Amino acid sequence: MPDDKLNGKEIKLIALDMDGTLLNNEHEISEENRKAIFEAEEKGVTVVLSTGRTLATCRDYAQALGLSSYLVTSNGSEIYNESGEIVERNLLETEYIQMMVELTEKHPTKFWAAAVEDVFLNKMPENISDYNWIKFGFDVEDDRVREEIYNVLSQKGSLEISNSSPTNLEINALGINKAKALKRVCELLGISMENVIAMGDSLNDIAMIEEAGIGVAMGNAQEMVKKTADYVTATNLEDGVAKAIRKFVL
Fold first, then answer.
1. What is the distance of C-alpha 114 from the center of its chain?
2. Using alpha carbons only, how large is the chain's radius of gyration in Å?
3. Residues of the chain with confidence (pLDDT) below 50
4. Which residues are annotated as catalytic?
5. Which of 204, 201, 203 lies closest to 220, judged by CA?
6. CA nearest neighbour of 158 among 177, 139, 138, 172
7. Is 206 exposed, middle or buried (0-12, 13-18, 19+ CB in 10 A)?
8. Rounded CA separation 250/71 (Å)
9. Which end of the chain is more exposed for a tag (fewer CB within 10 A), N or C?
10. Pairing status of strand 168-173 against strand 159-162
11. Are 49 and 71 in contact (CB under 8 A)?
12. What pLDDT is stored for residue 3 in this prediction?
């Protein structure tokens, strides 16, 4: 889409992925990104972190930025309001978690599993049915093994499969993604997805980049994300978020 058409859109909400987007490779927010976000908020634009991370690993960033808005976490499986209360939660059925744990045993891979109660890294609790599961992730360096796992999961037809880096797979309940969660946030705020600019770098960002009024891919984004986006900004090491905010919002 031509820049002049994009520049003509009224932006009321900025949705930001975190890793590879808002954060640099040391998981820090640059001063330029911080300033641009502050100026956008001063102008009355809502800024929402929309991340694959759980609440526990993104809440401090939202507080450090002084954000008093909704949080979209775990790829859209959870939405929290400005008071930190849960607005919506979509769980993964235990049978799928069990199946994915068996896949990690068949193909010895690193994994993580997020439940409402806790996050587990490469080791699961004894009784998985005691937990409410939000998301499961595989970290697989071997392309062939990753493809094999992807094929098994996609044959199930009832899981949402994405990634947050080229070597991982992230699994949510079917139909759950950042776009669906942001639509809910827009409803609560009384705005439309046309009023949203969404920025990201990975496959778990594609849905929100596609459905936002302005979809922005980072300069370091995966190729498919760049092809989906309306605009490609600078990388996460070059204040790409700030540059896009200054171009389209400020």
1. 14
2. 18
3. none
4. 17
5. 201
6. 172
7. buried
8. 22
9. N
10. antiparallel
11. yes
12. 73
